[in-house]
Amino acid sequence: MESTRKDDVVKFENVGLRYGLGPEVLRDVSFNLRAGSFHFLTGPSGAGKSSLLKLMYLAHRPSRGLISLFGRDIATAKRNSLPAVRRKIGVVFQGFHLLEHLTAFDNVALPLRVAGTRESDIKRHVEELLSWVGLKSHMDARPPTLSGGQQQRVAIARAIITQPDILLADEPTGNVDDAMGFRLLRLFEELNRLGTTVIVATHSRALIDRLGYPTMSLENGELTKLPSNEGGLSNV
Ligand SMILES: Nc1ncnc2c1ncn2[C@@H]1O[C@H](COP(=O)(O)OP(=O)(O)OP(=O)(O)O)[C@@H](O)[C@H]1O
Ligand SMILES: [Mg+2]
């Protein structure tokens, strides 16, 4: 028996995903995530981690099964209500997806501008966050002139600047050294303490072991380790 709890922010029930006419790359994926939880998502390359995150940020529709976000079934939600849902989700993409013609500052400022934040507040927030991730002297640089690790840090700053309800980070430390990786994860922990539900897809055993948050594992499109939701009741 599966029950929906008010504090489940993400719920998947028997979800499958196939790209075009190809085979299912996710099969019978069922889990729920409690508000305010922090999970790692692991699994071999090609297991389906990025695909699972894409379903969560509404980049793809499932081929079957049910997905609820913030307690609402996204298949039956009104189409024009989905952009508002999407804006509550911060995403660090595996390939960064920065806008190349905008500076680092303007990339990070973009979600705040969309949200109508005052320009003086934007300046303060963006400068503070870019300084924190070590890019104070690169705020005016455009992404193609930055290193992979620097671009990754811009992408992380952009994903968290609005303090989203859910943060999905796809290999967010894949291009930085361990010290910077832990520093970036500290930002995620800070956000999590303020209430953001965090999911970090990573291959890094070191990161998982050092931070000690529970892991979900995918193998060949199937969830082999479910989220651990403290309190236990919903972990089925
Ligand atoms: N746009 C796409 N079209 C067709 N197949 C795809 C597409 N994106 C991913 N796949 C396939 O789906 C499967 C899962 O890919 P996915 O990118 O989700 O894996 P992953 O766990 O994120 O891997 P990695 O650790 O290498 O990032 C793979 O077999 C991949 O080839
Ligand atoms: Mg991936």
Structure report:
This protein has 236 residues and is α/β, with parallel strands linked by helices. The chain has a domain at 100-162. Helices cover 32% and strands 25% of the residues. The chain has 7 helices and 10 strands. The protein has helices at residues 49-56, 82-87, 104-114, 119-132, 148-160, 178-193, 205-211, and strands at 8-18, 24-34, 38-42, 64-69, 72-73, 89-92, 166-170, 197-201, 215-219, 222-225. It has a 6-stranded mixed β-sheet, sandwiched between helices. It starts with 7 loop residues before the first strand and ends in an 11-residue tail after the last strand. Bound molecules: adenosine-5'-triphosphate (ATP) and magnesium ion. Residues 49-50, 94, 170 line the site of magnesium ion. Magnesium ion is lined by residues 49-50, 94, 170.
Along the chain, the helix and strand elements come as: EEEHEEHEHHHEHEHEE
For the CA atoms, what is the radius of gyration?
18 Å
What is the share of helical residues?
Answer: 25-40%
Cα end-to-end separation: 9 Å
The biggest sheet, with number of strands, parallel, antiparallel or mixed sense and barrel status, is: 6 strands, mixed
Q: What structural category characterises the helix and strand content?
A: alpha/beta
Mean pLDDT over all positions: 92
Query: What are the low-pLDDT stretches, counting only 5+ consecutive residues below 50?
Result: 231-236
**Strands, count:** 10
Strand percent estimate: 15-25%
Number of helices: 7
Strand order of the largest sheet: 6-7-8-3-9-10
Ligands bound here?
A: adenosine-5'-triphosphate, magnesium ion
Shape: globular
